[in-house]
């Protein structure tokens, strides 16, 4: 009797253990400074356990009516190597029908509530991601699509009118 109760308690504790996401770096690389500018691109550490990232992109040539996004996942194994997905979507079409691409729906789900990218093209305003927390990210990489422990990079290449305009890189550690 004691064995089965103890076993259940141990199983409960193991079930209760979950992964922890930590943002380690956030980079915003502009490829066409005449098209857009980055006002800020930062990770803010409020305390040891609460971090969030924020990004503000100023669009200089509005309205923007043609946007594609290439999103690739990399795992650090003697350098960053492709991991899981590398997908390109027409962002304007995707935002009209978010069920059209389940992989990008996952990616978009991570940041949609923290951003103003909640409508389809055209975009005639600055683009914001404000206070995307590690808690939000943690939910997606542990509950929605469990990912093994390790160091990862999410790279997003933003393409407007078939020209790469900016590359965003988010580095995370999953423990």
Automatic annotation (TrEMBL):
The protein's UniProt keywords, in alphabetical order, are: Signal
Classification lineage: Eukaryota, Metazoa, Ecdysozoa, Arthropoda, Hexapoda
Q: Which residues form the signal peptide?
A: 1-19
Q: Could you tell me what this protein is called?
A: MD-2-related lipid-recognition domain-containing protein
Species per Swiss-Prot/TrEMBL record: Drosophila erecta
Q: Does the keyword Signal apply?
A: yes
**Signal as UniProt keyword:** yes
């Amino acid at each position: 009797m004691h064995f089965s109760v103890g076993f259940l308690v141990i199983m409960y504790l193991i079930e209760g253990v979950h992964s922890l996401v930590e943002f380690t770096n956030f980079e915003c690389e502009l490829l066409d400074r005449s098209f857009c500018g980055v006002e800020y691109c930062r990770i803010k550490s409020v305390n040891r356990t609460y971090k969030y990232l924020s990004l503000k992109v100023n669009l200089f040539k509005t309205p923007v009516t043609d946007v594609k996004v290439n999103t690739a996942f990399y795992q650090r194994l003697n350098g960053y190597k492709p991991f899981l997905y590398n997908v390109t979507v027409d962002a304007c079409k995707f935002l009209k029908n978010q069920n059209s691409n389940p992989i990008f729906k996952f990616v978009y789900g991570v940041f949609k509530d923290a951003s103003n990218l909640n409508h389809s093209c055209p975009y005639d305003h600055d683009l914001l991601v404000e206070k995307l927390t590690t808690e939000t990210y943690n939910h997606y990489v542990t509950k929605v699509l469990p990912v093994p422990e390790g160091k990862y990079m999410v790279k997003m290449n933003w393409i407007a009118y078939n020209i790469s305009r900016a590359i965003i890189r988010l580095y995370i550690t999953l423990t």
